[in-house]
Write a structure and sequence with these properties.
256 residues; alpha/beta; Rossmann fold; seven-stranded mixed sheet; 19% strand
């Protein structure tokens, strides 16, 4: 199975460090696990991470809910090698648009930072596969790229990178046969600051996600941790929907 050249072993090792150590990655996992707890009693839920990378999310989910039965798949053998070395669930090399899995197999399906790399048609195919392998009443949890706030007119989709507004992604979920329960922009303030810096940058094409480093200064890590804790409270307790943010987090159910 082929993969883009930029997704080298070094790329995945760096990404693995970011996923484990960066406050953004930790905050996103906490948000999604809280959403899972609100919409599903994980118990011994059969869980599939579609595009699991190095398996960091599965590892944290099973640490919080030891009864969860973790499975994962990714297009990259480099990422899967890291996941296997860490013992993160039962894993397979696969394409999320053609899952080699039986119908109605899983209670929970996760997919983080995958759909934006598939194009509009590929994203629809991946969602159709997610619906197929979920059991009736099963839960879908997704994080993907949001249409860029104040610079949205400067960013256009490409064949291998696309973004959605909150409304468009909710419509995509409905068209794919899901019942959306939560669709929200996240990373409002960091996204706004990145957009302001981007006002003076060249017009971007393709992947325009936030730049992250695993080794942020300790003061910055602490500040970001405080910010994302408050953002999570705004989203979950006050149920605010932020006007900007570089990411979308969505929770949807397959009809029972």
């Amino acid at each position: 199975m082929s993969e883009l050249r930029i997704y080298s072993p070094e790329y995945y090792r760096a990404l693995h460090d970011i996923e484990r150590r960066h406050p953004w990655a930790r905050a996103m996992r906490r948000l999604e696990i809280t959403l899972i707890d609100r919409h599903l009693s994980p118990g011994r839920a059969r869980t599939f991470d579609a595009g699991c990378g190095a398996g960091v999310f599965l590892a944290e989910l099973t640490a919080v809910h030891p009864g969860v039965q973790p499975y994962g798949g990714d297009v990259s053998r480099h990422a899967l090698r890291l996941a296997m070395q860490a013992g993160h669930g039962r894993l397979a090399e696969l394409d999320v648009r053609q899952l080699p899995l039986a119908d109605a197999t899983f209670d929970l399906l996760l997919s983080n930072d995958v759909l934006q790399h598939l194009g509009q048609a590929g994203a629809a195919e991946a969602l159709a596969e997610a619906r197929r392998v979920l059991r009736p009443g099963g839960l879908l949890v997704i994080r993907t790229a949001a249409r860029r706030g104040i610079l949205w007119r400067r960013h256009r989709d490409t064949d291998d990178y696309c973004q959605w507004s909150r409304r468009a992604f909710k419509r995509l979920l409905v068209d794919s046969g899901f019942e959306p329960r939560f669709v929200a922009r996240v990373n409002w303030l960091p996204g706004l600051l990145a957009d302001l810096r981007g006002l003076f940058a060249a017009r971007p094409v393709g992947d325009v996600g936030m730049e992250l480093r695993a080794d942020e200064p300790i003061w910055k890590e602490r500040l970001l941790e405080v910010y994302w804790r408050w953002e999570r409270r705004l989203l979950l307790w006050l149920r605010l929907r932020l006007p900007l943010g570089h990411n979308l987090v969505a929770v949807a159910k397959k009809p029972a």
